Amino acid sequence: MIGPLPSSTEVCIVGAGPSGLACALSLAARQIPFVIVDALAEGHNDSRAVLMQASSLEALAAINPQLSADIVATGIQSTVLQTIDLQERPVFRLRMTDIAAYTKYPFCLLTPQHKVEEQMRQYIGNKIHWNKRLVDLKEDGSKYELQFESGEVLTARYIVAADGSKSHLRSLANIRFLNPYTNMESSPGSSSDLSFVVADVLLSSPLPANIPRDTLQMMVGGGGVVLTAPMLDTTSRSSNLFRLYLGVPDTPPRNPDAAYLQTILDARGPGSHLKTHSVPQIARVLHSSRFRTRPALADRYVQRAKGGGAYILLVGDAAHKHGPAGGQGMNMGICDGVSAAQAIDEHRNAALGEGKGRDAVEIMDGYSTRRRAVAREVIDMVEGMTELEKGGAGWIPYLRVTALWMMFKMPFVNGMLAWKLSGLGHAKKP
Ligand SMILES: Cc1cc2nc3c(=O)[nH]c(=O)nc-3n(C[C@H](O)[C@H](O)[C@H](O)COP(=O)(O)OP(=O)(O)OC[C@H]3O[C@@H](n4cnc5c(N)ncnc54)[C@H](O)[C@@H]3O)c2cc1C
Q1: Architecture of 8-48+59-75+111-185+296-387 per CATH?
Q2: Does the keyword Flavoprotein apply (predicted)?
Q3: Does the CB atom of residue 112 touch ligand 1 within 6 A?
């Protein structure tokens, strides 16, 4: 059993999703005292991210190589990402192996987010204070005072806001969350939001040959993406477990059933426009949900307390939000978490006069500027990919797909996109 919440700490991480967990692991490795809290009663188990990129595996391996090795063991290494059109012609096959010279992880790892979080929690040990919902915040000279729904109060010098896209901390710190293209705050559920359905399904045997078991495949051009990602099924040992991501133009039901999902596959999934293969059949839905996205970016990542040396640092979805194309959200969040821990470490050293002349305020500003620029770049990439996925009728989508097909014939274009998707560019120079 974990003990009661202490009354003070150096760093308080609010949110034990992948971003908060990554920050906790990095702080622990640096021997910086911290407390991590979450409003939930235990770790979530929903279907969310399914892709892990080399950048986040590298970031976690720098803390503990065994952690990344354990995470890799939970998934399928997709060395190619395949995109096909409605006629099942290849639009491109993105070879992740092109980045092999720069990383131990030249693949996209297909593994569900809850398994990644489970592994990270095991390395943190029994340190997460569950059932602690942050409700308010006060400045107390050079510390923040965090108030929880339970009535408990905790003071901390650094707060890491890892509390997700609806971040309460971001609101308490008066940091705006704006659409980076309009600079406007868009209200939830606005008409420009994109809807997706995410479902873990068992497909019927035999699997048609146009559904690869070792590769992520996207089918584009039908008005919304149809993505199939094979997953390791450790419980039933079936190799027909897939995560589906389906882009939908209207509002899907809250928990789409097999009939709803099958209708989409029949209309614009593999086998729908070619009679050489049949459409995969859904035997069972294990979990399904819907979600909507619109891009948003915090106008700054760091808030400094008026009293002086206390800080709030935003990480993960609390700082940025975008669609699922390219599987970037969780990865960026993990890298933010590690980066925030590094900034806190450097800031403490600078404040103690051990920072090799570095200005303490500059360190925090540097974190904000650097990670915000990364998010902006990723949002642009995701938006471009989402447009491609939508496809649709007419010359413009057709020309876009044809241009891509031609560009991918050039090896350096493949290498460049694999590099961009991996996120390594933000950590390493090629
Ligand atoms: C359906 C769906 C599909 C997705 N698919 C992908 C994908 O394919 N690829 C990808 O990279 N990303 C995907 N994402 C996004 C990815 O899941 C997020 O980017 C990732 O979870 C962000 O992690 P985080 O730790 O920043 O936030 P979260 O995972 O949201 O964690 C925030 C935590 O903070 C806690 N919390 C919130 N408020 C409080 C409070 N007041 N007090 C205490 N605790 C609080 C919450 O309980 C939660 O545990 C998807 C998201 C969804 C919803």
Answers
A1: 3-Layer(bba) Sandwich (3.50)
A2: yes
A3: no
